[in-house]
Amino acid sequence: MSMILFACVVRVRDGLPLSASTDFYHTQDFVECRRRLKTLALRLAQYPGRGSAEGRDLNIHFSSSGDVACMAICSRQCPAAMAFCFLETLWWEFTASYDTTCIGLASRPYAFLEFDSIIQKVKWHFNYVKSSQMESSLEKIQEELEFQPPAVLMLEDTDVANGMMNGHTQVHLEPAPNFRMEPVTALGILSLILNIMCAALNLIRGIHLAEHSLQVAREEIGNILAFLIPFVACIFQCYLYLFYSPARTVKVMLMLLFICLGNMYLHGLRNLWQILFHIGVAFLSSHQILTRQLQEKQSDCGV
């Protein structure tokens, strides 16, 4: 008997179903579970990235990252690690096939009907194919679940009454789990060191100038900000390199702009070589941030 019975892909912000498997079981439990899954899909933005809604015979598992969430109805015998490995595989397959613009512009249910066959293929693979590669993936997911357990609900808690959640489970406002980034490179480490050095120089000069200005003149407030704003931008660049953040390109360009404008404003307090050094480090850091991508989906967890 299949342990993964039904799966779908939904848009997180409004619960719009984007694609789903064609399975349908004419049992009261399954029909009721499908109804509760639709209700839960509308509330995904208020839950952590992973969660399970437990019922008597069937469970709902969901995993969301960014704009997309994958959901599945599984039997009680289905291990949580298997369910979440399946959902993670679906997420990678879907996001590799469709970009965020297409997902955001979708206006009708099941707009990506052609992805249904992929869902069926992945579901069949997890239900009936066992391999050492899959076992390795399941062990990795199991370790993640032990480190960060998914939210656990009862199916009754997914009902909505007067726009509020019923039951005793509190609505969580936690962010989704971090994406896995590619390994840090030697050049990336160098950019971090240089960025920290530039941040320290900006902070020291800014504090020193602030102490001096409080005693002498207030017209130097612009110079103080020209030191402190690039300091903050350098620190944020380090964060963007180490951790995934949505809209990275826009944030990187803003930080680069702040650093360049700040150093140009400081012409006179810094010589040309100092300005070029700070701007050069900013460009190096920006390049390293934009080239460090999410890890590719590992084949041992997919089809």
From TrEMBL:
Gene it is expressed from: SEC22C
Subcellular location: Endoplasmic reticulum membrane
Keywords, sorted A to Z: Endoplasmic reticulum, ER-Golgi transport, Membrane, Protein transport, Transmembrane, Transmembrane helix, Transport
Family: Belongs to the synaptobrevin family.
InterPro entries in alphabetical order: Longin-like_dom_sf (IPR011012), Longin_dom (IPR010908), SEC22a-c_C (IPR059071), Sec22a/c (IPR043546)
Gene3D superfamilies per UniProt: Longin domain
Top-level lineage group: Eukaryota
Membrane topology value: Multi-pass membrane protein
PANTHER family for the chain: LONGIN DOMAIN-CONTAINING PROTEIN, VESICLE-TRAFFICKING PROTEIN SEC22C
GO biological process, one term: protein transport
Domain Longin: 8-119
Stored SUPFAM superfamilies: SNARE-like
Principal location class: endoplasmic reticulum
Segments crossing the lipid bilayer: 184-204, 224-242, 249-266
Function of the protein: May be involved in vesicle transport between the ER and the Golgi complex.
GO CC terms in record: endoplasmic reticulum membrane
Keyword Transmembrane helix: yes
Name this polypeptide is given: Vesicle-trafficking protein SEC22c
Signal peptide: none
